[in-house]
Design brief:
Blueprint: E1 4-6, E2 9-10, E3 23-27, E4 30-35, E5 44-46, E6 51-54, E7 56-61, H1 70-74, H2 78-94, E8 97-102, H3 108-115, E9 123-125, E10 130-132, E11 157-159, H4 162-175, E12 181-184, H5 203-215, E13 220-226, H6 227-234, E14 240-246, H7 249-258, E15 261-263, H8 266-275, H9 283-292, H10 296-306, E16 309-310, H11 326-331, H12 337-351, E17 369-372, H13 381-384, E18 390-393, E19 396-400
Parallel strand pairs: 1-5, 2-6, 7-8, 8-9, 10-11, 12-13, 13-14, 14-15, 15-16
Antiparallel strand pairs: 1-3, 3-4, 6-17, 17-18, 18-19
């Protein structure tokens, strides 16, 4: 285990500029002090002037989404998806993501395997199966399939209708250890039967799910594209809006009023536009993709003007996970480097309910760091054009290799 890092240019996760301090002392998995310097030694890294950032957080990850064709993913055994997830998580860690929030699919078993060191990867905050209404975004059954009289439960999502059913689904999700609950309140790209504009779940259904989450001192995250779906979600207690590509000024103001977070996922649309067809994205999904893909950056700008807290996610599927760092490039078209870095560190930590322990370099925080060659506050490209020089999670060196251009 490391006991310190010295001779580093430090950005602490919240400030407008680099710290005057140049060293970090570590005790176990926790930052003990941030100082001008510390003594060298066998377990101290001399950063040689490289930039030290808090460990990155991806707040919209899909560890079990092994393919862009979601109905195909839903047909695979969970054991296969778990093996696939191990590779995705390990590579995310190598890119500097020491924490991810899974947005549908990951479960207690995967979390436990990470905690016990059986799988190498970031810290995991999982939502279990996302909850969908019949015919909603999480209902992956083909249109021609006749109902069987039973609830549809798949790998990434499950179907529940009515207040009693959604309440039971939320309670079961929390019983299985989920850190938060995921629901769908608008149509989506990958589902076969719902248009993007379709508003999903009634107000009473959403309130019931939110109530169950709050009883467990956690929150609800919601897939939502359209302005009316976003307003529907946040006015009924949803805390985290995923994607939000079609939000407008009214929806952004509603989010700010209710203290909701926006988690844009620009990388997935960029990657799907370029490679979705070759990887098997259906024609229906490609058509819906074109409705929302070009609006994401503008939505971020609207939300920023309204004072919405903006997180950082990617929502990548299958072979597109190698585009994870591209979210920095896409966000830089409308956002300042320091605001994007905050989104991927301290803002996401607040969203997860871990402010002060994740996403910051400060005494008492977990010793999660990314060491990069360059000046990301002034040239954010150093994050998406190359992988980190080193990644440290909980005081343990997880990556310490020469950088590889991307």
């Amino acid at each position: 285990m490391l006991v310190g890092i010295r001779n580093a240019r430090i950005w602490d996760g919240t400030s407008e500029s680099y710290s005057s301090a140049r060293a970090v002392a570590i005790s176990g998995d926790t930052i003990q002090a941030v100082a001008d310097d510390i003594a060298g030694g066998e377990n101290v890294i001399d950063a040689g002037g490289l930039t030290l950032l808090p460990g990155l957080i991806d707040a919209h990850f899909h560890a079990y989404a092994s393919d862009v064709n979601i109905p195909h993913v839903e047909s695979l055994p969970a054991s296969y998806l778990a093996h696939h997830a191990a590779g995705l998580l390990g590579r995310a860690l190598d890119r500097g993501f020491t924490t991810v929030r899974d947005a549908g699919g990951a479960d207690w078993g995967l979390w436990k395997a990470l905690e016990d060191g059986l799988v190498r990867g970031p810290r995991l905050f999982y939502a279990g199966r996302a909850i969908s209404q019949t015919g909603g975004h999480g209902d992956s059954r083909p249109t021609h399939l006749e109902p069987c009289g039973c609830r549809h439960v798949a790998n990434l999502s499950e179907v529940a209708d009515g207040v009693d059913e959604v309440r039971r689904a939320a309670r079961e999700t929390l019983r299985r250890g989920a850190h938060q609950i995921k629901i769908f309140v608008s149509g989506g790209v990958s589902s076969p039967s719902d248009p993007i504009w379709m508003k999903q779940f009634s107000a009473d259904e959403i309130k019931a799910i939110v109530e169950e989450a709050e009883r467990r001192r956690t929150y609800v995250m919601a897939h939502a594209y359209t302005a009316d779906a976003i307003i529907h979600a946040v006015t009924n207690g949803v805390r985290s809006i995923e994607h939000g590509n079609l939000l407008d000024e009214e929806a952004a103001q509603a989010m700010a009023k209710h203290g909701a977070f926006l988690v844009p996922t620009l990388a997935t649309y960029d990657a799907l536009l370029e490679r979705g067809a070759e990887l098997g994205l259906s024609e229906v999904s490609q058509s819906k993709l074109r409705e929302v893909a070009e609006k994401g950056a503008a939505a971020v700008a609207i939300a920023r003007r309204a004072g919405v807290k903006i997180g950082f996610g990617t929502d990548l599927l299958g072979g597109l996970h190698d585009r994870q760092l591209h979210e920095f490039r896409l966000r830089s078209e409308t956002d300042r480097p320091v605001d994007i870095l905050r989104s991927a560190t301290s803002v996401n930590a607040e969203l997860l309910g871990r402010a002060g322990s994740l996403g910051e370099i400060r005494p008492g925080a977990l010793a999660d760091f990314v060491l990069v060659d360059g000046d990301p506050l002034n040239a954010l490209a150093v994050l998406h054009e190359q992988e980190p020089v080193a990644v440290i999670k909980g005081g343990r060196i997880e990556r310490d290799r020469p950088r590889h251009p991307r």
